[in-house]
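Translate structure to sequence.
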């Protein structure tokens, strides 16, 4: 019978929380938004855990940030203030590109691309190398934290119980 919250689960949970706190502290020291770090953490888990998948997922986030910056730059290059039609057209265009990327052989993680778009548009930053640096640093930090928490869990699960309950056992 699975236990809902045994000592091994507590050890894993406390470690993950400590990794999150450490990553948040590093984000503050580096001057990057903690929320963007968590987008990187989420991206790590979008398509399988592991270093190789994590790097592909991170790459997709960075591509998404770049696509968002490109779309924003193109809209701003239009004469006059962009209205609803220009904004809707921009969303159509960037979504068309992102959804078309699913056919790439390797970098085809749609949730990763959209997390990058969310990061860019939520940041409110102007399209620039500075924006890419800030959001890229946050994504790398979050993906690294996701990898560390995943690696710790895998190590302890192998050493302890092979069953980690995601939900409480039925009563």
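Result:
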């Amino acid at each position: 019978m699975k236990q809902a919250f045994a000592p091994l689960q507590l050890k894993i949970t406390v470690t993950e929380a400590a990794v999150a706190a450490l990553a948040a502290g590093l984000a503050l020291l580096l001057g990057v938004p903690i929320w963007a770090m968590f987008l990187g953490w989420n991206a790590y888990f979008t398509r399988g855990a592991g270093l190789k998948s994590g790097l592909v997922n991170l790459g997709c986030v960075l591509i998404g940030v770049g696509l968002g910056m490109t779309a924003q730059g193109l809209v701003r290059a239009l004469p006059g203030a962009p209205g609803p039609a220009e904004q809707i057209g921009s969303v159509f265009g960037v979504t068309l590109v992102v959804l078309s990327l699913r056919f790439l052989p390797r970098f085809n993680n749609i949730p990763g691309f959209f997390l990058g778009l969310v990061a860019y548009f939520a940041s409110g930053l102007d399209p620039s190398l500075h924006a890419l640096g800030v959001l890229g640093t946050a994504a790398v930090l979050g993906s690294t934290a996701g990898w560390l928490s995943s690696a710790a869990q895998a190590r302890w699960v192998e050493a302890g119980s092979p069953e980690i309950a995601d939900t409480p056992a039925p009563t």
